[in-house]
Structure formats: C-alpha cells, structure tokens
Amino acid sequence: MHLLAIGTRKGLWLATSEDRKSWSLSGPHHAMTEVYAIAIDARRDRPKLLVGTSSSHFGPTVVTSDDLGATWDEPDHAPIAFPEDASLERVWQLALTPDPEVVYAGTQPSALFRSEDGGRTFSLVEGLWKHPHREQWGAGFGGQAIHTVLPDPDDPQRLTVAMSTGGVYRTFDGGASWEASNTGIKAYFLPDPYPEFGQCVHKVSRHPSRPERLFLQNHHGVYRSDDSGETWTSIADGLPADFGFAMVNHPHKPDVIYNFPLAADGDRFPPEGKCAVYRSPDAGASWEALRNGLPDGFWTAVMRDAMCTDTATPAGVYFGSRSGEVYGSADEGESWQKIAEHLPDVVCVRAAEV
Fold first, then answer.
1. DSSP secondary structure letters along 101-170
2. How many helices (H) and strands (E) does the chain have?
3. What confidence score (pLDDT) does residue 225 get?
4. Least CB-packed of 58, 132, 222, 333 within 10 Å?
5. Distances in Å between the alpha carbon of 332 and those of 152, 276, 279, 310?
6. What is the pLDDT of residue 141?
7. Mean pLDDT rounded to a whole number for the chain
8. How many CA atoms lie within 13 A of 222 on its CB side?
9. With contact defined as beta carbons under 8 Å apart, do 91 and 37 qualify?
C-alpha cells in the first residue's frame, strides 16, 4: 500500500492507495495543530509514524503511531526540551538513521536533538548548541530553525544539518564538534556575499547511494556539492528562477533531482503563475519543466518539506501547496493528478510503501 502523509498548519491528513491512481483520505489527525515534521519508518513489521505537532495551547511535541494513524501515542511530558534558558517553538525536521532506534530532530530555535529509543525521548546535541557561531545565527522569514538533518548512511559519526539562517554545518565525530560548510554559497543580503556562515539555506538533499553529493536550494541560488559540502557550485542555469524552497532526490537515480522554482523572494509564486516541477536528469547540468496535469494561474507556493518522492518503481513524486492542494505523479513527474484540495496550508509531505 502507498501512504502519503500530509502535514498542514491545522493538522495531519493520511492518504492511502493501492495503485497511486485512486486515493483515500483520512483526517484531520491532531486537528488545529501545526505539523511541520513527519517521518515514516517502513522498515518495521508495523510501520511507525513520527509526527512533530505544535499546539497554540499545549505547545510542541512528537507523537507516534504504530497502526497508520488509528491510534496515537502522545507523551505526558515534552520529549524535546532545552536544559537551559530556551524554549522549544517547533519541531522542523524528524530524520531517521540506519539504526531504527536513532532519530534526530531539528528544531526552532536552531538546535539538534537525538533520540536513542525510536523517538520517545530526545537529548540535546550540545556540541552544536554551544557552537561559537550560534549567537550570530539569524532568523529567516519563517524563523530561526534547523530544517534539514542528513545522517550519513555509511558513517554514524557524520551528520550534515542546514538552517535558516546560518547555513550548512557538518560533524565528523557524532556531534561533539561542528564546522560551517558554505564555501561557494552566496548570501547577497550580507556585506560579504560569501561569508563563512550566515547563508539562508532553504533545503539540502542527497541520495543515500552517493552521500558525498549534495543538492541545495538557497535563498536565491541552487547548488551542488560533490565533496560532502566542502565546496558548492551553482546549478541554477536552466531554471526559470533561482529562488524556492524544495529540493528532492529521485529514490533510485542519484543524478535525478526535483525542484519547485518560485519567481523571487518578493514574489513567492511560480513564474507567470505556471505550476511546474523542474527535473534534472544529470545532477543539475540541465533542467526540464514537468507540468502535464498541473494548473496555470497557480499563485501559491510549495515549501521546503512540501515535496517528496516515494520508493516505488517507477518513482512517485508529490507536492502540496500553501493553498491546500496536493498533487502526485506515479511516473516520475511525467504526468500529475490532484490527490487533495481545500486542505489547510500544506507545509510537509512524506510518502512510503507500507
């Protein structure tokens, strides 16, 4: 069965399908909570959902389900909490690792937490929290947050994170120490346009079979790194705009990536209002527009975690909009169908075979 989890500003919806043509939708789960972070662990005998929710009354937490949303385990105490004078505003990212019990959470304010019990409890990664740059990290339009967490599939001691604003940081020793890794990424809004840190990175992705190659959508700028983030090169040529939020890898083909360009930071909708996912077959050397089945007059946006792929063959590609529409493609982006509409503001989508 195909599962698509849709996180919105007012709850979670779950869509299921046997053929990726007809979809059944359930929800809202956790109504009137913001759902910015979702992880689906399909490796277990019973697939596990981990969801970061944030209630205006009760605050943020992480809830789990082992029965595809029929019931939820909501902890009595906050599983993510700062040990000192700071408070958790939101969970922006939940990242699985090769070890099913180890889960990372990226948060607002910018911090990283690690769970060793499958997401029930988390501890602060103090090496990043106490980094000397932290006092100078700024806040993007959506807040100061770690929104990208990329565990290395081959080495549990290596981890890459990205934040707005601050940029890309890497650890090689399990989080004890961190280094900024932004060489080549432009921050046009700063006096030094190529600083050591301070970039407003929107999303970073990579394919597990090629962990040394990273793709990055910046606040104006699209980049690739072939050396694990040591240096970055622009791959924006061929796109109609270099602004956007989403960057997604094909699940099987490490050179194939998907991007959703927006006109500019001041015009956060597709150029000319034409809804289109752009696909590169060659790691960003060229781009093609995929819009068969997608509308014109699309004056909305797709956010950083609101586009994803599944692991089927051929691969499915999915995205949700800030106007509450969700589209899917069962043929790697060649054609699209509407899965849902009139939902609240979609901020996160995740897909899996369960």
1. T-EEEEEETTEEEEESSTTS--EE-HHHHT-TTGGG---BTTBSEEEEEEE-SS-TT-EEEEEETBEEEE
2. 1, 27
3. 98
4. 132
5. 25, 13, 9, 10
6. 82
7. 96
8. 29
9. yes
Cis preceding-peptide flag for 240 (omega within 30 of 0):
no
Q: What is the predicted pLDDT for the residue at 67?
A: 96
- The C-alpha atoms of residue 270 and residue 350 are separated, in whole angstroms, by 22
Angle at 151 between CA 148 and CA 156, to 5 degrees: 155
188 alpha carbon, distance to own chain's centre: 23
Give the distance, in angstroms, between the CA of residue 1 and the centroid of all CA atoms in the same chain.
23
For residue 86, give the amino acid letter: A
Tokens of 65: 């389900």
pLDDT > 90 in the chain, percent: 93
pLDDT in tens, 106-145: 999 999 999 999 999 999 999 999 999 999 998 888 889 9
For residue 234, count CB atoms less than 10 angstroms from its CB and return exposed for 0-12, middle for 13-18, buried for 19 or more: middle
SS3 of residue 45 by DSSP: coil
* CA 211 to mean position of chain CA atoms: 17
CB-based contact 175:114 (threshold 8 Å): yes
Q: pLDDT (tens digit, 9 = 90+) per residue, 31-76? A: 999 999 999 999 988 899 999 999 988 899 999 999 999 999 998 8
Domains of the chain: 2-353 (2.130.10.10)
Q: How far apart are CA 2 and CA 354, in angstroms?
A: 6
How does pLDDT run across 81-109, given as a tens digit for each residue?
998 778 999 999 999 999 999 999 999 99
